[in-house]
Design brief:
It comes from Streptomyces xanthochromogenes. This is GH18 domain-containing protein. InterPro entries: Chitinase_insertion_sf, GH, Glyco_hydro18_cat, Glyco_hydro_18_chit_AS. Belongs to the glycosyl hydrolase 18 family. The protein has about 350 residues and is of the alpha/beta class. The chain has one domain (about 35-260, about 315-350): TIM Barrel (Alpha-Beta Barrel). It contains 11 helices and 15 strands. It has helices at about 5-25, 50-60, 90-100, 115-120, 125-140, 160-180, 205-210, 235-245, 275-285, 315-325, 345-350; strands spanning about 45-50, 65-70, 75-80, 80-85, 105, 105-110, 145-150, 185-190, 210-215, 250-255, 260-265, 270-275, 300-305, 305-310, 335. The strands form 2 sheets. An 11-stranded mixed β-sheet has the order 4-3-6-7-8-9-10-15-1-2-5. Strands 12-11-14-13 form a 4-stranded antiparallel β-sheet, with helices on one face. Helix 6 (about 160-180) links the parallel strand 7 and strand 8 (about 185-190). Helix 4 (about 115-120) crosses helix 5, helix 5 (about 125-140) runs parallel beside helix 6 (about 160-180) and helix 8 (about 235-245) packs parallel to helix 10.
Length: about 350
């Protein structure tokens, strides 16, 4: 496909820059000097199956910073049944990630009806069956472990809450113990715990049994609520103050958003990646501006007589959160999702 003139100009500039750098590195002034150290691998991320090729290419571009990729490939349907999404288990992807030095720890999620997952977890026999089913999945490919993202139990009511919380902790302990015995990683993805959310997760137990606990640090404002930032330094401070009191900081990964939401009053909220949000902002002629409290970008535009508001995350927003992560000793992050992100976040993530 022919390059557009702008792309040709950028390509020419890139080639010229590369030639200049090559000359500098081989000049007498640089002879014998060590090359800059490569960025450390402090980032993990979820690979979305619905944009598998684009996300995979994104991963390979940033492989030097990624230690683990979790393809979002599987869905638990019952104690003894796990279904694959399109493209699940593709050997080419698994092998390519391994060749890039990246661990492959696929995600198993669920969208079971209210009470179904709780029933599996609170029944010892059903729970044991589910653990065996998950272990069989790990053995089915050259996987390095598994990431469990079970969220339907989060809104469990007061009457059932203690039993479900204890049952999930027991499940995590049984699964992680078996995985560790096989030299496989056990990753647990959880909702953030604040004064009003995340009570179902027994952070103290999960922190003892899991290799990594990923906190979903996004959707402070979500598609079902009012417009606003997806994250903020103040929110992260609340989350990490509680989390690090119960889980060692070196076992925590802070999940960061690479997307946004496009809200309209009384209408449907739309999901947008950073790429989509920026393209929309430019197309609508909206100025780039940052919210002074959260440090995140947002804009508004009119459509069909209604005002829509878009809030999303980019490198500037992530930069605003760095002091909080540093204060709590968090050095590992997880991107939701790979291929969604502002390319400028990668140097920022390298400073975490």
């Amino acid at each position: 496909m022919p390059l557009r003139s702008g792309a040709r100009t950028r390509l020419a500039a890139l080639c010229a820059t590369a030639a200049t750098l090559t000359a500098l590195l081989h000049s007498p002034a640089h002879a014998g000097e060590p090359l800059p150290a490569p960025p450390s691998r402090t980032v993990s991320g979820w690979l979305p199956y619905w944009d598998q090729e684009g996300a995979y290419a994104d991963v390979l571009r940033h492989a030097a910073q990624l230690h683990t990729v979790s393809p979002f490939w599987y869905q638990a349907k019952a104690a003894d049944r796990i279904d694959g999404h399109p493209g699940a288990g593709e050997t080419r992807i698994i092998d390519g990630l391994h060749q890039a030095g990246i661990k492959v720890v696929p995600t198993v999620m669920e969208t079971l009806k209210a009470g179904e997952l709780a029933a599996i977890l609170t029944d010892p026999a059903a729970r044991a069956t589910h653990v065996e089913t998950l272990l069989a999945l790990v053995r089915s490919r050259a996987y390095d472990g598994i990431d469990i993202d079970y969220e339907s139990i989060a809104p469990t009511g007061d009457a059932d809450y203690p039993a479900v919380r204890a049952a999930y902790a027991a499940f995590a302990g049984e699964l992680c113990g078996r995985l560790r015995a096989s030299a496989k990683s056990c990753v647990l993805t959880v909702s953030p715990q604040t004064a009003t959310t995340g009570r179902i997760w027994d952070y103290a137990v999960l922190g003892r049994v899991a290799d990594r606990v990923r906190i979903m640090g996004y959707d402070l404002h979500w598609q079902g609520g009012d417009a606003g930032p997806l994250a903020s330094p103040q929110w992260y401070d609340d989350i990490l103050r509680r989390a690090t009191a119960l889980i060692p900081a070196d076992r925590l990964e802070m999940g960061v958003p690479a997307y946004g939401w496009d809200w309209v009053e009384g209408g449907k909220t739309r999901h947008v990646t950073w790429k989509e949000a920026e393209a929309l902002r430019v197309a609508k002629g909206a100025p780039y501006r940052l919210d002074p409290d959260s440090g995140t970008p947002h804009f508004s535009y009119e459509e069909d007589g209604a005002v829509r508001q878009v809030w999303y995350q980019d490198a500037a927003g992530l930069t605003a959160d760095l002091p909080v992560l540093s204060r709590y000793g968090i050095h590992h992050t997880a991107i939701w999702a790979l291929g969604f992100e502002d390319p400028a976040v990668w140097p920022v993530l390298g400073r975490v």
